[in-house]
User: What shape does this take?
Amino acid sequence: MTTPPAPRISPFDAIRQVDEAGSEYWSARDLGKLLTYEHWQDIDAVIQRAMEACERSGNPVPDHFRSAPKVMQGGRWGRYSVSDYHLSRYACYLVVQNADSAKEIVALGQTYFAVQTRRQELGELREAEEARLRVEEREKILVHNRELAAQARLAGHVTARDFAVF
Assistant: This one.
C-alpha cells in the first residue's frame, strides 16, 4: 500500500510567521532572500516602491509595513541591529509586484499573493454576508415573536405565567 504524497507547501507559506496576537506576517529579510535578492539595499528599494504604492492606494503604510529591527550576533561589539519589516499579506503582494519579474520565484510570488489575497477578500465578503443574513433572521424572529405575543393577548393570556404556558 502506498501512502499519498504529502501536500506541497508554498515557499511563501514556509516563511510566514504568526505574532503573539495571532496575526500573520512575513519578515522582509526572509522574503528578500526567497526572492533571491542578495543585498538588503536591493530588496529595501523594492520595499520602498511597495510602500509608495500602498500609500497611493489609500492604505495606511504602518498597518502593512511595520518596522521590526533585528539584533544580529557578530560584528565589533558582538551584536548589531539591522533593518527589517514585518509585512502583511497585502504588503508582500505589493513587494512581489514591484520586484524583478524576470525572476521565476518573483513570478511565482506574484501569482501566490494575488490568489491568496483574493481568497482572503472573498472570505471576508462571505463573513460579512453571513453576518447580514443573521441580522435579517433575528429581525424576522423579533417580528414573529411580537405577532405571537399579540395573538396570545387576543386569546386572553395576559399574565407572564399565561404567556409561559401559552
In short: Residues 131-165 form one domain. DSSP finds seven helices and six strands in the chain.
